[in-house]
Write a structure and sequence with these properties.
Layout (H helix, E strand, L loop, with lengths): L7 E2 L10 H11 L11 H21 L6 E4 L2 H13 L6 E5 L4 H7 L4 E4 L9 H7 L4 E5 L13 H18 L6 E5 L11 H4 L3 E5 L10 E5 L25 H39 L3 E3 L10 E6 L4 H10 L2 E2 L15 H5 L4 H5 L1 E5 L6 H14 L1
Parallel strand pairs: 1-11, 3-4, 3-5, 5-6, 6-7
Antiparallel strand pairs: 2-8, 7-8, 9-10, 10-12
Helix pairs in contact: 1-8, 2-8, 3-4, 8-12
């Protein structure tokens, strides 16, 4: 079978390659500076200082305080810590999540009294329905910043304004139940602002492997006015919210990668938007069998999700893989699960239409030549 000369990777929403600058920042802590940061001798103190500086760098990027940054092993752990950590302190209260959240939000939420906010056919949270779901016992709202499958950008600032109005009303009525706002921002960090104060967030999750950093790295931002329970207890690391010897190389790598992608986010977003729109235009104009899942305007710059009538996504993905082209059908975390995508179901697609859908996500190493190639391969194989 004919194969592409060079592999074309178009699944950046699943994982990103480690940047050279990030590896160089990590390298000293992978071997030579292996010391436990909790020890008291000089070498350990130097390692502890590296963690401190990484925390300060992340806090600066988020316009937060250093003590509000908790290093974790990725987005799933951060989401679990946010939801379980808060809800375990408010066991008689309820929370609200959107219908298109990652499973690392939906599954922990299912352990508590919770409500699910629907989205419209473009994959955007319905604010009027969200408002009606909030009752006097709602203590947490968790809405992702950007969806990982269809790239829909959620109105985070408008949701935070709604939450402020609810809190003001509670104060007037003497309701002392607090209300907090968490967002899974793992897919947003490459391209959108992460200023937690401007977004109005109390908690925010980030994942290193989505931003050209190491896998099993991430953070949970927790506003200093909020207290939650830990998931892991022990030595009291990470302000007693995440015990265990710190993974210094991953922490340093995460901080470096976040710094890089946030610095480049506007320029990179503009570049990828042009490539994304080229791909969309080429495919939509090619055949009326091809439709775009989700919004065109309110969409992350690197995300494309096509419904291609008559194809089987798994078969197409394997054909393209044999040609050296890597794409996906949806969330990599659910790739081994035969259940239809809950995200595509939430925007109204049938099970058959979900089987006809593919996800293509672009990244820092995607160029126009790659896009021309993928259009050619798609046309030949559908």
């Amino acid at each position: 079978m004919k194969t592409a000369k060079t592999a074309i990777y178009l699944d950046y929403a699943a994982a990103t390659p480690l940047l050279d600058q990030v590896f160089r920042a990590m390298e000293p802590y992978l071997r030579d500076n292996f010391y436990n940061p909790s020890s008291i001798y000089l070498k350990s103190i130097e390692v502890k200082q590296a963690i401190k500086e990484a925390r300060q760098q992340v806090a600066k990027t988020l316009n937060a305080r250093a003590k509000e940054i908790i290093f974790t092993a990725g987005g799933s752990e951060s989401n679990n810590l946010a939801i379980k950590g808060l809800m375990d302190k408010h066991k008689n209260k309820n929370l609200i999540v959107s219908a298109i959240e990652h499973d690392s939000v939906l599954k922990p939420a299912s352990r508590y009294d919770h409500k699910v906010c629907p989205v419209n056919k473009l994959g955007v949270v319905d604010l009027s329905k969200l408002k009606r779901l909030i009752d006097d016992q709602t203590v947490l709202i968790s809405i992702m910043y950007v969806n990982n499958e269809i790239g829909s950008i959620q109105p985070i600032k408008k949701i935070s304004e709604l939450i402020k109005d609810v809190k003001k009303d509670r104060i007037k009525r003497g309701n002392k139940t607090p209300l907090y706002f968490h967002s899974d921002a793992c897919q947003a960090a490459n391209y959108l602002s992460l200023s937690v104060s401007k977004l109005g967030l109390d908690m925010m999750s980030l994942n290193g492997c989505k931003i050209y950093g190491p896998k099993q790295s991430g953070i949970l931002f927790i506003n200093s006015n909020l207290t939650i329970n830990p998931l892991i207890e022990g030595g009291g690391q990470e302000f007693s919210l995440r015990s265990g010897t710190e993974n210094t190389s991953a922490i340093v790598g995460f901080a470096k990668s976040l710094q890089i992608v946030q610095k480049d986010r506007k320029e990179e977003s503009q570049r990828l938007t042009k490539l994304r729109d080229l791909l969309i235009d080429q495919m939509l104009n090619y055949s009326d069998r091809v439709k775009l899942n989700g919004s065109l305007k309110n969409r992350l710059s690197n995300n494309v999700n096509f419904l291609i009538d008559g194809i089987d996504n798994e078969t197409l993905i394997m054909k393209l893989d044999n040609l050296g082209v890597m794409i996906a059908s949806g969330s990599a975390c659910n790739a081994s699960n035969d259940a239809p995508s809950h995200v595509l179901k939430a925007i109204g697609l049938s099970d058959q239409q979900i089987k006809n859908s593919i996800r293509i996500t672009l990244g820092r190493f995607t160029n126009e030549k790659d896009l021309i190639a993928i259009v050619k391969y798609l046309k030949e194989n559908i």
